[in-house]
Design goal:
The complex is a heterodimer. Chain A is elongated. Chain A starts with about 25 loop residues before the first strand and ends with a strand. By secondary structure, chain A is an alpha/beta fold. Chain A has a 5-stranded parallel beta sheet, sandwiched between helices. Chain A has helices at about 45-65, 70-85, 85-95, 100-120, 125-130, 160-175, 190-200, 215-225, 235-245, 270-275, and strands at about 25-30, 35-40, 130-135, 140-145, 150-155, 175-180, 205-210, 230, 255, 275-285, 285, 290-294. In chain A, a hairpin with a 4-residue loop joins strand 11 and strand 12 (about 290-295). By secondary structure, chain B is an alpha/beta fold. Helix content of chain B is about 45%, strand content about 10%. Chain B contains 12 helices and 8 strands. Chain B is globular. Classes of the chains: A alpha/beta, B alpha/beta. The interface between A and B is small, with 10 and 9 residues.
C-alpha cells in the first residue's frame, strides 16, 4: 500500500456565511507556541472588514427580529455541533496555546458550556434589563432592551477559543450581529469555529470571523459609520485608545478592555453592554365622563 | 442605408447579414475591462460622473405623487450634507407621474424621462402606444423610454418593429417643432442570443433611436457588462458608418459603485470619451445612487459610510 499524501487544511475567513479568502490575497504563517509552523491564515485587509460589516448589517434585521426563544435554540445548536468536533478543537487549542491535552480539553469544555449558558439567556435578558417602571403620572411605563446593531470585536489575544466564545456569544445572544477579529497569534480555533457556525442554523452574516492584525483592520471598523458598537477585549492599551477616539465620531458604544478571567462565570455584563433601552409611555386612567379606561 | 429598410426582406437580409457575435470573446473582453483598478482622484471623478449620468427611476405600481416628489428632491440635491455633489441626469417615471415630476424639477437641468408604449410588456395596439407616448410628451417629458415589441422581433417581423419605433419617434415631436429624445428598450433578457441583441441595436438605430437601452428592469436578466459592451460596439459601428451618434443606457441590476465604474470603463474603451457625458450615456437605476453617495462620503471623509447617512427611497 502506498503512503497517503498529506492533506493540508486551507484556513479561510468566515464572512456572510461563506468562506472567502482575504480580498487582498495575503496570508501569514501561524505557528504553535514553540514556533513550529501550523498553517497559513488569511491576513485580512480593511476591505475584508468592510465586506464583513455589509454582511453583518444585512443579517441584522432578521436576527434581531427572530424570537428570543429561536435565537436560544440556534445558540444551543452551536454547542451541539461543537461537542461533535470537540477533539479537533482540543488539538487546535493545545497547539495554539501550548497546553497539555487535558488543559486544552478543559478550555474547550468550558467554551461549549458557555454557549449553552448564553443560549439560556436569550429569552431572559428582557426580564432583567427591562420591565415596568413606576412613574408619577397616569401612565403605564415599560422599558425593554433592544440590540445595539453591528458590533465589531477584537477577540482576546491569549485565550484563543474560550476567550473568543466568551466575547461573541453574548453579543449575538442579545440579538446583535458581530464582526470579530480573531487572536492574531492563534487564529486557527476561531477560523474553525466558522465551520461550526456554518452548520448550526446560525444565519449567514450574524457572525463574521476575520484573521489578521487588529491594528490594521480595526481602525477602519472603529471609524465605520455603519458599525454601532465596538468591544476592545483583545486590544492593547495604545490601540484601544486609538480605536475609542475613532469610535467617537458616530457615538459608538465602546466596551473598554479589562482584565478578565475567562474561565470564571461571566455574569451578565457582556450581555448588557450591547443593548439599548426603549421606553414606552402609555396613558392610563379614565376616558372622559364614561369612566372607561385604556 | 435607406435601401436596407425598404422592405421586410431587405431589412431581414441586412440584420441577418451582420457578423455573428463570439459570446466567449465578448464576455471575456467585458470581464477583462472590468478588472481595471480605479482609485483616488480618478475614482472621485468617476463617481461624480456616474451620479450625473443616473436616470433616477421609480417604476412601481405603488408610486404616489409624494414619492415622485421625494425622488425629484433627491435628484436635485442627492447629498444634502455635501452640496458639491452633482445632480442626476433625469428622473424616470410612468407617464401619469410626468406632470408631478416636471413640476418638481422645473427650472433645473434635471430632465424628466417617461416610460411609454405599454411599458414594460409592450403588449398593446399601436394606437394605444402612440397615445401613451403623446400623453407623456404633452405632460412635459423631455425623454421617452419605449419598449420594442419583443414578440414581433422574435417572430422575425423586423419591419413591424421598425415601423413602430418610427411611429413612436414621430409621436415624440412637440407642437413647437422640438422633440423628446427617444430611448428604445430592447429587453435584452428576453432576446435569447447575443446575435439578436446586435440585430435589435441596429434595428433601433436605423429607426431613429436617440438612445438604445438594455432593459426594463422588470425581468430576471437586466443590464450586464457583456450585453452593454455589445450595444456600445453597435453604436460605435453605426457612428462610423453613418456619422450619427446614438446614446446607450444600461438599466436594471446595477447597484454598486464598483459595477458602475466597470460600465464607464466599457464606454471609454469602446466608444471613447465623447460618450462619457450624460448626453450620451445613462444608468437606469435607483439604489445605485445611494451606493455612489456612500462611496463619495468615504472618499471625502476617509470613513466608511452607512445606509443611515443616505435617504431611504
Amino acid at each position: 500500500m502506498s503512503e497517503r499524501l498529506s492533506v493540508f487544511k486551507t484556513y479561510k475567513l468566515f464572512v456572510g456565511g461563506k468562506f472567502p479568502r482575504s480580498e487582498s490575497g495575503r496570508v501569514y504563517e501561524v505557528t504553535d507556541s514553540k514556533g513550529n509552523w501550523l498553517a497559513n491564515a488569511p491576513l485580512s485587509s480593511r476591505k475584508d472588514g468592510r465586506d464583513a460589516v455589509v454582511a453583518a448589517r444585512k443579517a441584522f434585521s432578521a436576527w434581531s427580529g427572530a424570537t428570543a426563544y429561536n435565537r436560544g435554540q440556534i445558540l444551543y445548536r452551536v454547542a451541539e455541533m461543537l461537542e461533535g468536533r470537540r477533539d479537533q478543537f482540543v488539538a487546535e487549542v493545545a497547539d495554539a496555546e501550548g497546553l497539555s491535552k487535558a488543559k486544552a480539553a478543559a478550555q474547550v469544555d468550558a467554551a461549549i458550556d458557555r454557549w449553552v449558558w448564553y443560549a439560556g439567556w436569550t429569552d431572559k435578558i428582557a426580564q432583567i434589563a427591562g420591565g415596568t417602571n413606576p412613574v408619577a403620572g397616569p401612565f403605564f411605563n415599560v422599558s425593554s432592551p433592544e440590540p445595539t446593531g453591528v458590533v465589531a470585536v477584537v477577540a482576546p489575544q491569549a485565550s484563543s477559543f474560550l476567550g473568543l466564545v466568551s466575547v461573541i456569544a453574548p453579543v449575538i445572544a442579545a440579538g446583535n450581529t458581530v464582526v470579530v477579529v480573531a487572536s492574531e497569534k492563534a487564529p486557527l480555533p476561531a477560523l474553525s469555529l466558522g465551520e461550526v457556525l456554518a452548520t448550526s442554523d446560525v444565519p449567514g452574516g450574524v457572525v463574521n470571523i476575520l484573521s489578521g492584525r487588529a491594528a490594521e483592520i480595526m481602525p477602519s471598523l472603529a471609524a465605520h459609520q455603519d458599525v454601532n458598537a465596538i468591544d476592545l477585549a483583545g486590544a492593547g492599551a495604545e490601540l484601544a485608545t486609538e480605536l475609542e477616539a475613532a469610535a467617537a465620531d458616530n457615538l459608538k458604544r465602546v466596551l473598554r478592555p479589562q482584565a478578565v478571567d475567562w474561565v470564571a462565570a461571566p455574569g451578565t455584563g457582556r450581555l448588557m453592554a450591547f443593548l439599548e433601552t426603549k421606553t414606552v409611555w402609555h396613558p392610563t386612567g379614565s376616558l372622559g365622563a364614561g369612566g372607561s379606561s385604556y | 442605408m435607406a435601401d436596407v429598410t425598404a422592405s421586410d426582406g431587405a431589412l431581414r437580409r441586412f440584420l441577418h447579414g451582420l457578423p455573428g457575435v463570439d459570446p466567449v470573446g465578448l464576455e471575456g473582453r467585458a470581464a477583462a475591462l472590468g478588472t481595471r483598478s480605479i482609485k483616488t482622484t480618478a475614482k472621485a471623478y468617476a463617481i461624480d460622473l456616474a451620479i450625473s449620468m443616473i436616470d433616477l427611476t421609480t417604476l412601481e405600481g405603488a408610486d404616489t405623487p409624494g414619492k415622485v416628489r421625494a425622488l425629484c428632491a433627491k435628484a436635485l440635491n442627492p447629498d444634502p450634507t455635501d452640496r458639491t455633489t452633482p445632480r442626476t441626469a433625469a428622473i424616470c417615471v410612468y407617464p401619469d407621474m410626468v406632470a408631478t415630476a416636471a413640476e418638481a424639477v422645473r427650472g433645473s437641468d434635471v430632465k424628466v424621462a417617461s416610460v411609454a408604449t405599454a411599458f414594460p410588456a409592450g403588449r398593446a395596439a399601436l394606437p394605444v402606444k402612440l397615445a401613451d407616448t403623446k400623453d407623456a410628451v404633452a405632460a412635459g417629458a423631455d425623454e421617452v423610454d419605449m419598449v420594442i415589441d419583443r414578440g414581433a422581433f422574435l417572430a422575425g417581423r423586423y419591419l413591424k418593429v421598425f415601423e413602430e419605433i418610427k411611429a413612436v419617434k414621430a409621436a415624440c415631436r412637440r407642437e413647437d417643432g422640438t422633440a423628446a429624445r427617444l430611448k428604445v428598450i430592447f429587453e435584452t433578457g428576453e432576446l435569447s442570443t447575443y446575435d439578436n441583441i446586435r440585430r435589435a441595436s441596429w434595428l433601433g438605430m436605423l429607426a431613429g433611436a436617440d438612445f438604445i437601452k438594455t432593459s426594463t428592469g422588470k425581468v430576471a436578466v437586466n443590464a450586464t457588462p457583456a450585453n452593454t459592451l455589445l450595444m456600445l460596439e453597435a453604436v460605435r459601428d453605426f457612428h462610423a458608418l453613418t456619422g450619427v451618434q446614438v446614446g446607450v443606457k444600461p438599466a436594471g441590476g446595477i447597484r454598486t459603485t464598483k459595477d458602475a465604474l466597470k460600465f464607464l470603463v466599457l464606454v471609454n474603451e469602446t466608444v471613447g470619451e465623447e460618450w462619457l457625458t450624460n448626453e450620451w450615456f445613462r444608468f437606469g437605476a435607483s439604489s445605485l445612487l445611494n451606493d455612489l453617495l456612500m462611496q463619495r462620503q468615504k472618499l471625502s471623509t476617509g470613513r466608511y459610510s452607512g445606509p443611515d447617512y443616505v435617504t431611504v427611497d
